[in-house]
UniProtKB/TrEMBL annotation:
Cited PANTHER family: 3-OXOACYL-(ACYL-CARRIER-PROTEIN) REDUCTASE, 3-OXOACYL-[ACYL-CARRIER-PROTEIN] REDUCTASE FABG
Family per similarity comment: Belongs to the short-chain dehydrogenases/reductases (SDR) family.
Domain of life: Archaea
BP-aspect Gene Ontology terms: monocarboxylic acid metabolic process
Protein name per the record: Short-chain dehydrogenase
InterPro entries: NAD(P)-bd_dom_sf (IPR036291), Sc_DH/Rdtase_CS (IPR020904), SDR (IPR050259), SDR_fam (IPR002347)
SUPFAM superfamilies: NAD(P)-binding Rossmann-fold domains
Origin organism lineage: Archaea, Methanobacteriati, Methanobacteriota, Methanomada group, Methanobacteria
Pfam families reported for this sequence: adh_short_C2
């Protein structure tokens, strides 16, 4: 399978760290120029420096909070002015509080999850649409097993992510005639927070691993980034409106 992304432009929200940076690395290796967004300039600049030093690509860092429409509108304009095109939009960024029972959530907790997740995805999709239509591009939105499987303590996060899934399916229907394919991924991935948790609670970590048929968490670059590369490739151009669970087999369902 050819994952050459040379000459293409990929937007990755939350691309300066964690899962987003892993995806950015995968796309940089494949030759795509990047626009990475986030709320902390120093994080974005560090990611830009590392990616440009290692790979022959250009990285445009943009400080923007996806929950604010004017910031997203301006970010898309900057990207279009810089590159002249947008081929791939990956909506990865999300903030939320976890570990709270439904009745313990406040409206502010829900606002955080919905604004940084559902509204942010809506804003980026809305303003990137004309460019994606022109390039017959791809959108990859991130949801979660929290919503798919009703995981405890994740009410606001699950609500935001299931909203993203529903909106993605509608967009796949509406934008199909424009040649844009839209899919959702639900990852279970190793992060810096999980690594710290593994060090602090090794026995609980091992018990958790035993519940994953493949006996490991996903790798942000190889597993998540690799799947995103496939979904953005010509080989996946007929796949749209789907939810792909990257959960090592723990997301088995009929």
């Amino acid at each position: 399978m050819n994952n050459d992304m040379s000459g293409k432009v990929t937007i990755i929200t939350g691309g300066g760290k964690g899962i987003g940076f892993g995806i950015a690395t995968a796309f940089a290796k494949a030759g795509s120029n990047l626009a990475i967004t986030g709320r902390t300039e120093s994080t974005l600049l560090k990611a830009k420096e590392e990616l440009e030093d290692k790979y022959d690509v250009k990285v445009l860092p943009i400080v923007a909070d996806g929950g604010y429409e004017d910031q997203v509108k301006d970010a898309i304009k900057q990207i279009a002015d810089e590159y002249g095109r947008i081929d791939i939009l990956i909506n990865n960024a999300q903030a939320s509080k976890s570990g709270l029972k439904l009745v313990e959530h406040t409206k502010e907790d829900f606002d955080l999850a919905i604004n940084s997740g559902l509204y942010a995805v809506f804003n980026f999709m809305k303003y990137a649409y004309p460019y994606l239509k022109e390039s017959k591009g791809s959108v990859i939105n991130f949801a979660s097993g929290a919503g798919l499987f009703g995981r405890d303590g994740q009410s606001s996060y699950a609500a935001a992510k299931e909203g993203i899934r529903g909106m993605s399916r509608v967009a796949a229907t509406e934008w199909g005639c424009d040649g844009i394919n839209i899919n959702v991924v639900c990852p279970l991935v190793m992060t810096a927070q999980l690594e710290q948790w593994r060090e602090e609670y090794p026995e609980i970590y091992e018990k958790t691993i035993q519940g994953i048929p493949l006996q490991r968490f996903g790798d942000a670059e190889k597993d998540i980034g690799g799947t995103c590369l496939f979904l953005a490739s010509e080989a996946a151009s007929y796949i749209s409106g789907e939810t792909i669970t990257l959960q090592g087999g723990s997301g088995l369902r009929p």
